[in-house]
Amino acid sequence: MNFELMASMMCANYGNLEKEVKDLEAGGIDSFHIDIMDGRYVPNFAMSLNDLRYIASAAKRPIDVHLMIEHPNNRIDIFLKSLRQGDTIYIHPEAEYHPSTTLQSIINAGMIPGIAINPGTSVETVMEMLRIVKKVLVMSVNPGNAGQMYLPYVGKKITKLLSLKEDMDFEIYWDGACSADKILEFAPKGVRGFVLGTTLLFGRDASYEETLHNIRELKF
After folding, report:
1. Residues involved in catalysis
2. Could you report the per-residue pLDDT of 37-86, keeping only the tens digit for each?
């Protein structure tokens, strides 16, 4: 079964970030997921613009940028300039007065537009944007910190999105507390990709190559 695996780079070893990027690529990661937090939209700071620029310059695989910041349209240009065409930028609709304007800027720059949906955000409130975006990042935990517990009602939200994705032409991605059982349950249903953090990928004894191979060999 085909599904994408993205490395949550806020969980990486910053003592040797170049090695982390190279080892993850050699191990078969599909893309690098970069969380930008401003301490306002979420109660934490994570990953700077310089982190993004370095990883984008060192990596050959695509970059997924998750903007957990207030009013991303005010600063969207500095993120677009740091990426390559075909990379992805997710915004939170609640963080912007006119999110469709920000999404159009992403599209105009040749990037892939996406929205991130918090556990407390209903599908109905973002319905119109589902026809604009190509990716929907479903947060299974409240955003802002790694290592949080899965909120089980998110599964019903994913079921609703799965019923809409073919008609509206978007793919669904999972972010937060991603364990093997979640991949086993939701990949066969049509979730396209999974952001991997401390639950499955980082801080383990095995190499990234071995870990990613084992995840891809999960029995469905």
Report:
1. 35, 175
2. 999 998 889 899 999 999 999 999 999 999 999 999 999 999 999 999 99
The three-state DSSP-derived secondary structure of the chain is CCCEEEEEHHHCCHHHHHHHHHHHHHHCCCEEEEEEEECCCCCCEECCHHHHHHHHHHCCCCEEEEEECCCHHHCHHHHHCCCCCCCEEEECHHHCCCHHHHHHHHHHCCCEEEEEECCCCCHHHHHHHHHCCCEEEEECCCCCCCCCCCCCCHHHHHHHHHCCHHHHCCEEEEECCCCHHHHHHHCCCCCCEEEECCCCCCCCCCCHHHHHHHHHCCCC
pTM above 0.90, yes or no: yes
